[in-house]
Specification:
CATH superfamily of the largest domain: Nucleotide-binding domain of ferredoxin-NADP reductase (FNR) module
Structural class: alpha/beta
Radius of gyration: 19 Å
Number of helices: 7
Number of strands: 15
Order of helices and strands: EEEEEHEHEHEHEEEHEEEHEH
Helix content: 10-25%
CATH class of the largest domain: Alpha Beta
Oligomer: single chain
CATH architecture of the largest domain: 3-Layer(aba) Sandwich
């Protein structure tokens, strides 16, 4: 009898199919249906990641789910912002401090931070899409002198759905990032913009020869934003987006997240619009 070789994660050198035991240290309610967990390994293990990568989080006895890493790189704890949308994510968002959780990862291709150095950066997030972009924002802030102008365009359904409100206000007050927010629906007490996030592109004075765009949110949002950016002259190879598909194994074996010839977990989740644009326009894919 032959044994199937154990899959190894190329970045960490650890078995990719074995979760490491961790414990929740903090739990924060960020939106009506979203919670942020700070997680710490039970034993000291080497762990590094790049902005845009994800982990597979295990709610023991329920299952595991692919969740983007949403904390600043280099921190001692892992940070994940999770939306309660199904049995696994529901179980994860109900974990309390000192509850166990399993972690596999990190997996995937992250944001092109090295490519973005020396460039202006347009960051466009929709809803929970700000979570995978948050590490990129903190990376830029930690090396602010290496980047040009930076814009954050963020759209949420309602004012109460806006993530990381205190951090966003801090970014806005310090002036290192030009922050613009819009919501789909709001009451009379909302002083900001109401409408789709593409409407915020008018705030961006973009030099397309030296601009990189990073997008994360619902696919329909990313398609419209990418189309608007290309209409302004930004090249499709300069537009990067993070795809969200049903990832089960995280190592390209099961095929659940296959989109055309690409496996989102292995080849992404970050892709150029040059590669993803034609696939995103195909119905049923």
């Amino acid at each position: 009898m032959s044994l199937k070789p154990t899959a190894i994660d190329a970045r960490s050198g650890a078995p990719a199919d074995v979760p490491k035991l961790c414990y929740v240290r903090k739990r924060r309610h960020d939106a009506p249906d979203a919670w942020t967990l700070e997680i710490e390994f039970a034993e000291s293990v080497p762990f590094s990641y790049t902005p845009g990568q994800f982990n597979m989080l295990t709610a023991f006895g329920v299952g595991e789910s692919a969740i983007s890493i949403s904390g600043p790189p280099g921190q001692g704890r892992l940070i994940h912002t999770i939306r309660d949308v199904g049995p696994v994510s529901h179980a994860l968002t109900r974990l309390a401090p000192n509850d166990p959780v399993g972690v596999r990862g990190p997996f995937g291709v992250g944001w092109p931070m090295a490519t973005a150095e020396g460039q202006d950066v347009v960051i466009v997030a929709g809803g929970l899409g700000l979570a995978p972009l948050r590490p990129a924002i903190y990376h830029i802030l930690s090396r602010r002198e290496h980047f040009g102008d930076v814009w954050l365009l963020y759209g949420a359904r309602r004012p109460e759905d806006i993530l990381y409100r205190s951090e966003i206000e801090e970014w806005r007050k310090k002036g290192h990032i030009d922050v613009n927010i819009t919501v789909d629906h709001a009451g009379m007490d909302w002083p900001g913009h109401v409408g789709v996030v593409t409407g915020l592109l008018s705030h961006v004075n973009m030099d397309v020869s030296r601009t990189i765009a990073m997008l994360c949110g619902p696919e329909v949002m990313m398609r419209f934003v990418a189309a608007s950016l290309t209409e302004k002259g930004l090249g499709v190879g300069r537009i990067f987006l993070s795809m969200e598909r049903n990832m089960k194994c995280a190592i390209g074996h099961c095929g659940h997240c296959q989109l055309g010839p690409a496996f989102i977990c292995r080849d992404g989740p970050v892709f150029t619009f040059e590669r993803m644009g034609p696939l995103m326009s195909v119905k049923e894919l």
